[in-house]
Amino acid sequence: MRQDRKFVAMVVENLPEVPEDVKQGWIENPKGLQKFLSGLCPPAEAFAQAQLLRKLTTVVVSGAKKFVAKDHLRDANVGWMGDSFKRLFLGNVEENVEAITVAIHRLEKSSLDAPIMAQLANRTEINLAHFFELLKKQSKGEDGVLLTNGHANIAYIKGSDGNFWTVRAYWDSSSRYWVVEAYSVEYPGRWHDGRQVLSRDS
User: Fold this and answer.
1) Where are the alpha helices (DSSP H) in 29-152?
2) pLDDT 10s digits, 125-175
3) Which residues contact 171 (CB under 8 A, 6 or more apart)?
4) Is the pLDDT of residue 14 over 70?
5) How far apart, in whole angstroms, are the C-alpha atoms of residue 121 and residue 101?
6) What residue spans define the domains of the chain?
């Protein structure tokens, strides 16, 4: 106990602008010092979450008065779609979609969807019209903000059921077209680091 108090005394003596009576209280009760220091340093979980996404760039994406994905497959060069995407998005109508600035994030470590969505908070949702506009800009696999190395570009978009779904697009270099799929945000699989996440910028 004496050694613990000696250590705490050494710590508090190096804290600037802390009243002497407070320092003495911390020496007598180290838990008070622990609480103070925890306020200065974020918990490990919060730090880990803060490191989950790294914003790479932003891009302005136009809106649409009316958008239906099946009318834009050729322009976006979507060559294959998963069954969930066909069911929930292919004929879904988005109306009066506003132009927004989309943020492109790099996933810094593997993660489920829930922690990613938690970090994005109210910036999570974009429209399918925005997603397809970016696919069109790289419809031949050109360089751009989206990955064309076979890794996933993902976005959180509401389907025809009114729920968020994870929409993934990746460039198939052998077939030379985009592959688009939709997964439940509760799907237990993890997205690997190096993949990209799209969101609203603000």
Assistant:
1) 30-40, 44-50, 73-76, 83-85, 113-120, 128-137
2) 999 999 999 999 999 999 999 999 999 999 999 999 999 999 999 999 999
3) 138, 141, 146, 147, 148, 149, 150, 177, 178, 179
4) no
5) 16
6) 2-41, 47-200
